[in-house]
Amino acid sequence: MSTRTKDVLSAFYDALYAALGPQHWWPGKTPLEVIVGAILTQNTAWKNVERAIANLRAPARPADDLRALREEILALQQRNRALEQGLEELKAKMAGLESGKDADTNRNTY
After folding, report:
1. Cβ atoms within 10 Å of 9's Cβ, excluding its own
2. What angle (nearest 5°) sits at the alpha carbon of residue 101, between those of residues 95 and 102?
3. E strands in the chain
4. Half-sphere exposure in the Cβ direction for 85 (13 Å, CA)
5. pLDDT by residue (tens digit) across 42-93?
6. What gap in Å lies between CA 34 and CA 98, rounded to an integer?
7. Distances (CA, A) of 84 to 77, 88, 92, 96, 98
8. Cys bridge to 44: 4, 21, 33, 40, which one at CB 3.0-4.6 A?
9. Could you say which DSSP state residue 62 is in?
10. Is the whole-model pTM more than 0.85?
């Protein structure tokens, strides 16, 4: 960006700020919240970004709560893996049906 462009943009920003004041458009109250929000908005729905920022503001959890949360996350991951494996098997069966062969035996199904 050229120096002239920077100067024009800076003057434009200064004029808007002088006329309108701070707009409080970003929900972050601390630098960490702003950084987390800025990173998450790149790949996350805004509603989920707001939830993540709200979670940052929540009081710290005791170690027992964190252990229980970790176990819950691990259980969800295992269920997700099982679902993914089931979907892969279903895709293979469907491909076999489309090709006229059984995916398990590689024999014709007709």
Report:
1. 11
2. 85
3. none
4. 6
5. 877 888 888 888 887 888 767 777 788 888 888 888 888 888 888 888 888 8
6. 51
7. 10, 6, 12, 18, 21
8. 40
9. P
10. no
